[in-house]
Design goal:
8 strands; five-stranded antiparallel sheet; single chain; three-stranded antiparallel sheet; alpha+beta; 4 helices
Length: about 130
Amino acid sequence: MSADTIDGETLADALANLFAVVDGDAEPDTAEYDRAMELGLTDAQREVAAEYAGAGRIEVGTSTVPNLAEKLAAGKKIPWTFTLDGVRFVKKTSTGSGSSVADSEWWWSDGDYGFTFYRHTGGTDEVSIREA
């Protein structure tokens, strides 16, 4: 599903979850999101970060940038992710400029590395990694 379209099932799930939250019958689940946002790189993430540190912008293998409808349909916050060499990373910041529906740039530090994630609406997303 692209960020520009919402299928009927996703819309129905999103509305049901939204109304449940508004009515006080549910709360968006944030536990998984909170765990994903905790600082700390795995050994595999550190190896990939070390390999690409200082290499400039690198096209990511895949990336996920969930839109509001997808978050509402899931009933939880969902982090942005990207993969490099098959290793999954999470965008751990709200510091940046742009949005999930426009070209944007987001940056954060995690351990010994700084990351900048470049979201491109019309192409492949990129990341640059530097030693912090």
